[in-house]
Amino acid sequence: MRFTSEQRLDDGVLERGFTLGEVPGILWTPRPASASAPAPLILLGHPGGLGRMYPRLAGRARHSAAEGFAAATIELPGSGDRPRSAAAEEARADLRRALAAGEPVDDDTVDRLVLPVVEQAVPEWQATLDALLSLPEIGGPVGYAGGLIGIGIRLAVVEPRIAAAVLFAGSFVPRSLFAEARQVTIPLLVLLQWDDEGNDRQMALDLFDAFGSKEKTLHANLGGHTGVPQFEGDDGNRFFARHLK
Q1: Would you say residue 35 has pLDDT above 80?
Q2: pTM assigned to the model
Q3: Residue 38: φ, ψ to 5°
Q4: How far apart are CA 80 and CA 110, in angstroms?
Q5: With contact defined as beta carbons under 8 Å apart, do 26 and 50 qualify?
Q6: N or C: the chain end with fewer CB closer than 10 Å?
Q7: What does R_g of the chain's alpha carbons equal in angstroms?
Q8: For the chain, what percent of residues have pLDDT higher than 70?
Q9: DSSP label of 147
Q10: Which residue spans within 81-201 are E strands per DSSP?
Q11: Is the pLDDT assigned to residue 4 strictly greater than 90?
Q12: Distance between CA atoms of residues 180 and 151, nearest Å
């Protein structure tokens, strides 16, 4: 891991840009007066485009830092300045055509679009976790929040250092990941926007039912994809405080 930038934000949070190989990311750590040593870590997922998503990610990170958590994120494969995949771009175009025509998105399109991202992103997240946990100011256990729910499912199954997850049921899920969801045992808080345009509400409910966790909670709120109520951030912090501190 190589740090490429550093700034102290007006609330005292330290924000550092980094690269791990060719993968860019950002780490936020709490101001010294509020930080426990080491701070528990939350990995912040997102749908891709780190520059575009920065305001929302920084807001989430600073909200978590106020509660004593460190937070980090990395760019998704094929997003931002990372190399594009012709196959992924073709699948994305097929998905947009189906949505524009009001047609259901077929399983093949979802598989072609989502599975390659999951296969590449999960090892990158694990390598990032290795690097972050080697820093003296960062400690476990670790939480995962948001982003493509397929990545969250896979990480919850294969990464034992992740102790709890807040998942957003707002992205397409390959059918093959339902079998993996049954293997998830960590505590889960799942957020569902009831009127999320372009996503299958029943599939989200079926996925929640499939999760194998003994502790799993579903929060469903009215509104579209970007209308998650602000109070859910507080609920997420309380959820992580129970399981990471």
Answers
A1: no
A2: 0.93
A3: -85, 160
A4: 21
A5: yes
A6: C
A7: 17
A8: 98
A9: S
A10: 138-146, 162-168, 188-193
A11: yes
A12: 11
Per the CB < 8 A criterion, the answer to whether 67 and 237 are in contact is yes
The CA-atom distances, in angstroms, between 60 and each of 67, 158, 232 are: 11, 25, 11
Q: Are the CB atoms for 125 and 151 separated by under 8 Å?
A: yes
- Give the whole-angstrom CA distance, residue 108 versus residue 19: 33
Structure tokens belonging to residue 155: 């990480």
Could you check whether the bond before residue 47 is cis, i.e. omega within 30 degrees of 0? Answer: no
Tokens read off for 205: 């409910």
User: Residue 36: pLDDT above 90?
Assistant: no
Structure tokens at 211: 């999760």
Strand blocks (E) in 122-215: 138-146, 162-168, 188-193
What is the signed CA dihedral for 228, 41, 135, 82, rounded to 10 degrees?
-30
Cα–Cα distance, 36 to 16 (Å, whole number)? 19
Structural tokens at position 9: 């934000």
